[in-house]
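Example: Cysteine desulfurase.
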Amino acid sequence: MQDTLPNPLNDVEVARLRADFPILGRSINGAPLTYLDSGATSQKPSCVYEAEQHFYENFNAAVHRGAHSLAVEATDIFEQARTTVAEFIGAKDNEVVWTSNATEALNLVTYSFGNASAGLGGDAAKRFALGVGDEIVVTELEHHANLIPWQQLAQRTGATLKYIPVDESGALRMDLAGDIITPATRILAFTHVSNVLGTVNDVAALVALARNVGALTVLDGCQSVPHLPVDVKSLDVDFMAFSGHKMLGPTGIGGLYGRAELLDAMPPFLTGGSMITSVSMESAQFLPSPMRFEAGTQRISQVHGLATAVSYLREVGMERIAGWEEYLGERMLTGLSSIDGVRVLGPGLGAARIGTAPFIIEGVHPHDVGQFLDSRGVAVRVGHHCAQPLHRALGVVSSTRASTYLYNTTSDIDALLNAVADVRGYFGVGK
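Written out as structure tokens, the predicted fold is:
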């Protein structure tokens, strides 16, 4: 993949990029830090936290509330950040709602639909109301954040929750999807990229199945927006959640994309100040999107930091990032598969995936694997990765996951492989 790009990333350029990430210069347990846990949270370039500090030192004020200069300047920064992030995902300004994270974004959708089911929102919101006989469809690949909110919504409304299963390798059973998605399906919620396996789902095929029955589509973009070029209009989804801390941005900031006409018709999730047009002691009228979903004091410095992160990603180039990670991912998968006693989870080489490799080591618990790798300075994720149903489908309780980003080098992959190769010997397994 990297050789087909006009100007692919390489180890020399990545080494220059790494200088923007001071934490990558750390040593862990006497070894250079090899950070392979970006699937959980990415590291931040200096410009991101400097942007937050610059905001507090020069522009700190509440947005959309004051007429003084600081308030106007802060509001301009806040809304310009919305424009920057919206353009990055191919959306319009009024189609991006700020949330604390992607989990809140997904809960915003489910609670809004629940409010519509309770009769709130008037005639415009009736299209989102659910009840007995309606179906919500998810997949067996989902992170808990795109599963539990739908479980709860089904329980509150009487709707039925169904799911598209995976096969023994973890690939989505698209051959069954057409039978599972029926005319009773009102919502199809699915992940763009599996947070465990790194595999990329066929969004176009799933959206087409939903469109055929008039269902709304909700995409979990947490693992795609940081790593792949994403255009929500080309994907043709109705909603998409994403999280800032996975894409070089600060913690405490995420976003929900939604088609403007849908957001404007949905009843609000949180209510309070700054999201209303008028209030009496008996009732309130709400602003259109995005402000109807942004009650209270907003995450202004975090929004500014996220916009700075997006600018950084755009400067490097998302196509180049995707190509480099695909190369690193193939290097990981090939290397891990060649080590005795290691089972790599998910479809084999050739499946569309980002630079993520989940694996188990025969006879060694993933937590022990993670601690051993940490002793070598290699940071990975261990556990069920907030995806217990997927792990059960794969016949395991938990796994070790290595995940790359634009700041990883081939030397990082080699450090992982060398450490993994020593795990079984250290624990006296397989002798």
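The mean pLDDT is 96.
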